Amino acid sequence: MDHYRKRETREEIGAELRKKDKEEEDVDVGSVSLFLSSPDPNIKKRVLSKRKTVGEEEKESKKMPPNSALFLLAVILFVSPIDSRGFFGIPGDYCSTRTHTCCENRDDDCTVPILGDHLCYCDMFCDRGPDGGNDCCPDFEATCRGKDIQNDQRIDGESCSMDGDTMEKNCEKCTCQNGMWKCDGTACLIQPDILEKLHTGRFSWTARNYSAFWGRSLSDGIKYRLGTLFPERSVQNMNEILIKPRELPEHFDARDKWGHLIHPIADQGDCGSSWAVSTTGISSDRLSIISEGRINASLSSQQLLSCNQHRQKGCEGGYLDRAWWYIRKLGVVGDHCYPYVSGQSREPGHCLIPKRDYTNRQGLRCPSGSQDSTAFKMTPPYKVSSREEDIQTELMTNGPVQATFVVHEDFFMYAGGVYQHSDLAAQKGASSVAEGYHSVRVLGWGVDHSTGRPIKYWLCANSWGTQWGEDGYFKILRGENHCEIESFVIGAWGKGSKRRRRFKMRKLRRFRKMFK
Description:
About 25% of the residues lie in helices and about 15% in strands. With about 525 residues, it is an alpha+beta fold. The chain folds into 2 domains: about 10-145, no CATH class; about 220-505, Cathepsin B, Chain A (Alpha-Beta Complex), CATH 3.90.70. Strands 6, 7, 8, 9, 10, 11, 12, 13 and 14 form a 9-stranded mixed beta sheet that branches. Strands 3-4-5 form a 3-stranded antiparallel beta sheet, with no helix packed on it. α9 (about 275-290) packs across α10 (about 300-305). The radius of gyration is 28 Å and the shape is globular.
């Protein structure tokens, strides 16, 4: 990201600013500066040009045709509504999260990521940009200068100068009507007032503002960040396997037991594809476990999205049973063969490995051009009992399981601890509340003692990348079917070893006879 931080002394900057003040009628094309006036995700970058010395400006002015100067003047006038408040108004912790929170004088490495691929600064130079602009982090004044700055998000009802003007407040669109700002009241994915209450209240979990979610509506997040459709009644009533009880430890993490055989955090991006991502994630883990590492491929979520479209909704959701049917009947190639792209497009795309290719003598062809087009299959999925001990035993014996649960509006702001849904949004009114189903991998369990009382939890792997939660993972209350996390748990065996599969089936039949 370009910015104004050219290596100059304060004296040079001051001299040039004084020179600019004297040239009131001249167009200063050497220092055009655009700063974000609000946390609008549609504004992808700030255009901050470097200041030139007087000699450089004189040389360029001689080379510049008159039409070019007029063109640049038009550009300046066109973008003039954007002011220089930088990142002011975006809630969240930035400078305060740094090990050495603030930096004296100027330090171009004193940064914190914000709004995706941007950086904000926590050094004492951050508010000395051209024309009063700054690239300070939102909490710079409070954290580094000790000022009690209230990032007032109230715009609705405040006065404005030009009827018809529009601006954005987080995800809301505000219009100037009769000299007053009127906002449309859209519920946002990041709700600053709820975030503040979660920060100051006594909860078993912590929250934070995610710049990737700022400026997004709540309905948009439910639609494109989840993606599992509620199972049909016949699927909900599928037979549960019987599991022999065993002694269980207080803490268990599949990553400790199986190490590199457990695959890393996925990122579904802006596509409601948790139905596909969680299915291929569980399949990848269990294939690696059952083959003792001989198979360690990450299965392609994109193939499920693009090719398993019958009665599915692609990036707007899908049914787990149909995803498992596809992977059982046809099989899925590795991610290296059919890479994931729907997170950027919000579209499932066309199927690039059609069914007919499975019977083609030439075999499957990888869309990526890779020569390894091996397709992996799984056995029919089975439902695990909703009993806490049965889920634990299945997980510790056979590997991670797939769980579907209800995501509420506050879950998007989860940062750490043991998640328990709060009613803060409901207190604001129905328009601030939303929910949807989401599927994740459950990797383990434990007990949290940080609040002074023991809280049992499940350890889960989300599919929102490693910047969310606890490096992509989250903990949720265990043993109380919180958010329905224990109501629909699925397992499956990979087709990596027929001998081991027969052994498991014989074992399962013996268990069933014991309980008859």
